[in-house]
Amino acid sequence: MSATTNPPEPGAQSRALWLSTIAFTVCFAVWTIFSIIGVQIKKDLGLTETQFGLLVGTPILTGSLVRLLLGIWTDQYGGRIVYVGVMVAAAIATFLLTFAYDYTTFLIAALGIGIAGGSFAVGIAYVSKWFPKEKQGTALGIFGAGNVGAAVTKFLAPVVMIAFGWKMVAQLWAVGLLVTAVVFWFGTKDDPSLAARRAAGEKPEPMTALLEPLKNIQVWRFSLYYFFVFGAFVALALWLPRYVIDVYGFDIATAGMIGAAYSVPASIFRAYGGVLSDKYGARRIMYWTLGVSVVVSFILSYPPTTYVMEGIRGPVEFHLATGVGAFIVLVFVLGFFMSLGKAAVYKHIPVYYPNRVGPVGGIVGLIGGLGGFVLPIAFGALNDLTGIRQSCFMLLFAISAVALVWMHFAILRMEREAAAPALAKLPALPEMQPIHGPAQEGVLRGGAIEDWRPEDQAFWEAKGRAVARRNLWVSIPCLLLAFAVWMVWSVVVAKLPQVGFRFTTDQLFWLAALPGLSGATLRIFYSFMPPIFGGRLWTTLATWSLIVPALGIGFAVQNPDTPYWIFLGLALLCGLGGGNFASSMANISFFFPKREKGNALALNAGLGNLGVSAVQFVVPLVITAGVFGALGGDPQAMQGGGTLWLQNAGFVWVPFIAAAAFAAWFRMDDIASMKASFADQAVIFQRKHNWVMCLLYTGTFGSFIGYSAGFPLLARTQFPGVDALQLVFLGPLVGALSRSLTGWVSDRWGGGRVTFWVFAAMALGVYGVIHFIGIKDQPGAFWGFFGSFMFLFFASGVGNASTFQMIPAIMGKDMARLMPDADATTRRLQAEKESAAIIGFTSAIAAYGAFFIPKSYGTSIAMTGGPLAALWAFFLFYLLCIAVTWAVYTRRGGLLHDVERRPPPAAAMPAE
């Protein structure tokens, strides 16, 4: 609580808490209104599962996105006026819902209704300022019990809807909001902090100051916890009525009652969670919450299964399924521990950020609320893709397990750092303790390179170049294998129908696209890992992780009855390979001086990119022979005759992954000056050039990886009479070689100028693809199509090198403006750290091209009958990139104009 001259008036304090809780309850009831009326709307409009999930989740999206802004406004202008404004706006939107007449207008109305969900960020900031730290856990727990509004809707809305129709539900809920707003306005006062600030004549703090804590990684870790304990709670509150209707055959009234059996404990016990957090500590409560959630969600995720075992007297059959009674008990337990977890998460915020409760609580609430939006859509998509109702709980099991592991390792790391001086004095082996003394301390323990000065020419020639090149040449094969595993589905999906898998074209495009989605998402996290854990350790672990999807693919493709959802999981796991690129590039950038970074990064990325070409060249060869003998399994019969060892597409990489991981551990190094926390690196989110380069690198690398993933399947669907699978490896090969061999061009002439002409070439190349697809029935059209794609791959490879060369140059020049009082060495070190982080982060954003380009093909074909709509969108995107490159960097007055037109230094030719 902010400092005030006088303690708050007890009556005003009590009214602020209880009226805020009542208001939040009413807002929450409105926010989840579609969980009941949506069932009838789904029936009236004939919606699919995915459309229903989007409708139910849309209010959650709005309520989540506005939380950060509402939290900031609460700190600036006071919770009382902001809270009333939220309720009035949501009441108007809820009443207007009754005038919706089709799916689009229902979605628009749902966006407005979602404002009610933003009330949480307002209430948290408002209530916390009335109570001292030792009572905030209990107070915020009581306020958070307003989640019970979801149960209010489930109890009352079915009764009203059956009697009067769903429109009456909306009208009554709107009136309830307005009445509550009036009572709240006249029954509460401004919080003590706001009153004291106004009395002193102080102005509200600027938004930039309020957002400063968001650079701390613990804020984002809290956000993940809340994504589960609150986001999953909201998602299940919305989803459960539909779930129990489909799984157990109940009517809407009974389904609402069962949903309430989950919602009530997940709401009212939040207050008890606040008491427990105050008494026993939030850490212990979070361990119990996530631990129990992992167990319960695993049980609920188990689909009804019949087992047949070969017994002594014949087959023994038994059936496993969760009955309705057990289901209700389990969701009650899950809801109870989620309620404790919600209170435990928010116990931290007013303690560590007493004057920033609005923005910090807002962002945590935003991410948690997004869970309530994303998860219902994911539940619907999983149902459509897997055909398993329990798939929603499978996803919740994965999220809770990740949150538990991350929390546990964060705590272990904190404890190790606290005990670091004592641990450093211990011997490496416990049996050495009797003869261990000061003379032996640290002698046998490896360490990072302390003295690293690559810009010092004498140091570089004497020692630096040899160390840097050794790390580079170990990094390259690790990255090559990562790309191979990442892109293996681009070849495998084209062969699945030939060995008996009956997947639709859209399902095959999903398998080709999902590694891109998961790989790009993992890159966001991987880009910050080398400075935190050290490049050597992280490269080793990341390389070992590739074995999991490689082995999984090898086993899964041997049986045509393998469920589609298993293939979806393996496709997502292949994203582990995609994530490696961000950490690899960030790591290598530290080893080389600025004058050689472009070439070094081009070699690492370009030769690493050869993994895409390698997989498209090697896999078609190894799947035609039993290269692993009996260990590899039996071949699969092909439709039309012949056999394939499709499992070799995964198995072939396993021995190389093991060898590369050992090489990384024994031959790579850590640099002490590389060490940086997430908070140190998070400054890049304030750099505008980080976001500009995300756009440009998406145009180059996003195109390269997206075309690599989608080219084989696009060629097969557009030119079915041509066996293109033996040729498609040439595209990634051309792109990888052009990247690795042209880095010196950007070092000599400037990455900005090269990038400008690259985008012009890519616009020309995609226009060629459009032209030849348009005349695909004419002789020679395939070769024009193929040649246009080769030109695109070549241009994208050159652009991959040139955009990465731009980043150190941009930050090196911009650092003089950002750090005007710092000396040259400090600026150089800061520029290197930020450049490495930006390189990793831009690669993460650009990697989404591996998902969006193949998915764009599939969507365009599904909606228009062909891929031309997607290709025209790519053409327009390249025109945008041309304009941005010129306006920001290469025009006279652009950031790089003067830098790139100085007399060039001696060319840094490619390494032999």
Identify the CATH architecture of the largest domain.
Up-down Bundle
Rg for CA atoms: 29 Å
Here the CATH topology of the largest domain equals: Growth Hormone, Chain: A
Overall structural class, as computed from helix and strand content, comes to: mainly alpha
CATH class of the largest domain: Mainly Alpha
Task: Provide a brief overview of the structure.
The chain folds into four domains: 11-196, Growth Hormone, Chain: A (Up-down Bundle); 213-416, Growth Hormone, Chain: A (Up-down Bundle); 463-676, MFS general substrate transporter like domains (Growth Hormone, Chain: A); 680-900, Growth Hormone, Chain: A (Up-down Bundle). Helices cover 74% and strands 2% of the residues. It contains 41 helices and four strands.
Spell out the key features of this protein.
nitrate assimilation; single chain; 4 strands; globular; two-stranded antiparallel ribbon; disordered N terminus; cell inner membrane; MFS_trans_sf; disordered C terminus; 4 domains; 41 helices; 912 residues; Growth Hormone, Chain: A; mainly alpha
